[in-house]
Amino acid sequence: TKYFQLLLFVEIIFLKIENTFLYIQILVICLLLLILILPCGRLCLIEVDGFHLPDTKGVSYRLTHPKTTIGINRLDAGARVMEYFHNDGFFRLEGDDCDGVLGLLPAQRAQSDRLFPYGEFVKFPERPPPPPPRGPVLDMLARHVKRAPSGNPILAWRGVIDAQVRALAEKPPGAFHHYAFNTARQAGANFALLAAHLEWLRHQGAAGFEAARESAAALSGAAKSAQFQLARAVSRKRFDGLEALLDPLAGHYEDMMRALRSRLAD
User: Fold this and answer.
1) How many CB atoms lie within 10 A of CB 87?
2) SS3 64
3) DSSP code of 35?
4) Helix crossing, 210-236 with 247-265: angle to 10°?
């Protein structure tokens, strides 16, 4: 609580008085954090600069300035330590990274385009809602599987990745973040979500999705690994073996789709 009180007063000091709208927005956000979220034990979601998130090392940490959302679980103002959720992990940062995430570094005060503060909070229901009927969920999954491309999209990416990465190496560092977000990160996130859905179906009594779930989870993990290897290739300008980097992803995709089509055909 004291930490967000400090944030409120710091923002008031450094904002220009004539910018009333920005002042009111920050005031409202800080008050929400102070009055509603923390005392209730609710998770606070804020948009931050990924430049200061250690869990993005090799992608954006100390390299580029992407906007991303984290969930703050704990703050220690005196020690300048934050524990937070980001993507599918739980992490810790400290020192200048903590100040940077919250926009408190002196250099950030001089930036006219610094990230506008935006926050939300998570409200958990008193009891979990009942799960949807299994039948319509399986029907929806079958419709999506039928809409999948006839070919392997990972192999299509494999055919152009060498030229794409060579071109990226000649662009500013921020270009890689946009490329990775629209390729490896999207693939990893989507197939992780599919694996979680298939696991949920298992808990609802729908058997026969184990092979597809394992392949989807493996594809997601391979996409995350490929993203880091692509970042190294761009930074070092070493392009050997880029196509082979995607071979595991393509194999997992083939196994997953084969298993899904076989199960849904039953």
Assistant:
1) 16
2) coil
3) I
4) 160
Question: What average pLDDT does the segment 94-98 reach?
Answer: 93
Pair 224, 191: CB distance under 8 Å? no
Residue 174 DSSP code: H
Amino acid at 220: S
Q: How far apart are CA 165 and CA 195, in angstroms?
A: 29
Q: What order of strands is seen across the sheet that includes strand 89-94?
A: 89-94, 81-86, 67-76, 44-49, 119-121
Kindly give the pairing relationship between strand 119-121 and strand 89-94. unpaired
**Residue 96 reports pLDDT greater than 60:** yes
Band of pLDDT at residue 147, cut at 50, 70 and 90: very high
Task: Tell me: pLDDT of 112 over 90.
Answer: no
Whether pLDDT at 75 is above 70 = yes
Please give the single-letter amino acid code of residue 247.
Answer: D
Within 13 Å and on the Cβ side, how many CA atoms surround 158? 16
Instruction: Say which residue the tokens 């060498």 belong to.
Output: 162
* Token reading at 203: 């808990």
* pLDDT tens, position by position, 114-132: 666 677 777 777 888 888 8
Pairing outcome for strands 44-49 and 119-121: antiparallel
DSSP percent split of the chain into helix, strand, coil, nearest 5:
60, 10, 30
Global pTM?
0.70
